[in-house]
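Protein Record: Sequence and Backbone Structure Tokens
======================================================
Tokens: labelled as protein backbone structure tokens, with as many entries as the chain has residues.
Task: work out the structure tokens from the sequence, keeping to the layout shown below.
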Amino acid sequence: MTGRRRKAARVLETVRGYRASRTIPTDLFGGDDQDEALAQITDGLDKVFAMLDLSEYRGVAAPPVVRRLDMELVARRTVCVDENVVEFTFRRVDGEDVPAWHPGCHVDVELPSGRRRQYSLCGDPLESDAYTVAVRLIPDGGGGSREMHSLDVGDRIVITGPRNAFPFVAAGSALFVAGGIGITAILPMVRRARAVGMDWHLVHTGRSRQATPYLDEISTWEPERVTVRSDDVDGLPTAADLLRHAPDGGSVYTCGPPAMMDLVRQGISETGATRLHLERFSPPPVVAGEPFRVTLARSEETVEVPADRTALDVLREQRPSIPYSCRQGFCGTCRVRVLAGTPEHRDRRLSPAEREDHMLICVSRAEGDSLVLDL
């Protein structure tokens, strides 16, 4: 008997066991026989469940679905007074709808130079034909924001995604804490909370009101549910300032500068909130790092990576053009082949097979004292 026939026989044997313990009601016309439609439906479901019961768990996650969309910039507008934050709206070149998304999602943007950056979607999820992001200009950054700000209507880019590492549950009560450009991830959440009638409050902070994006929209919301703070007028906020409206038994969603989110994390235990959700726009600090040495195989250069820095940070000093994006170990842009040594993987992206000979240099380190990379 072939393997396929043996498996089919095992499925039928399992189904017979299901049948012995089930009862099909009589037909709807008062006859004594069991209802034929229900019998066939139940029999079919039994076969499906039997195949699932007999299937083997392989322990390997399916590869992520990668959607690369050719997009065109159709609109841009400034969303704060100091003009350093610009909102961009993109539509597909082929005119088709974009993949659906939910509050908290972000997309990967591949710019004409080849740089890749992640930006939170801040438009309306019900707008099926466009993606909207907002970008603050960082003059001394890695160049991604400068290139985004140089885009004109009609320019084309590639967008991959969307992905959600910051999921929002539109139920119960919630406090939203946003700092500066972190409002882009929070905006769709608050809009959704308002639409479904949740109990919510927003705390939006910035260096000044002129540098705080989307105040024009936020000022139209229920004033008793919104707190806007500016450092130049109110001073730097404390954890109590940020969490004053944290709901008992509810959730806190926060996105913004690391210092602000650290305050929220440290102060959450002093509130009645039971869940904290956060998204970082900048890399987390290195925790429990050990120094190690990296050799670049193509040039035979060697660099020392201190305990409190990442390999990416150090290598960018030698190779400014090295590709990177999220700096948090989930996008995969900085993946590099490992030729010698054993990586200490700290990413959230690579599969077990990929980890055998690759690493993400933005977060992962060396288990020993050295690595040789294909760079």
User: Anything to note?
Assistant: The longest strand covers residues 68-78. The CA atoms of residues 214 and 273 lie 27 Å apart. The radius of gyration is 26 Å. The chain has nine helices and 18 strands.
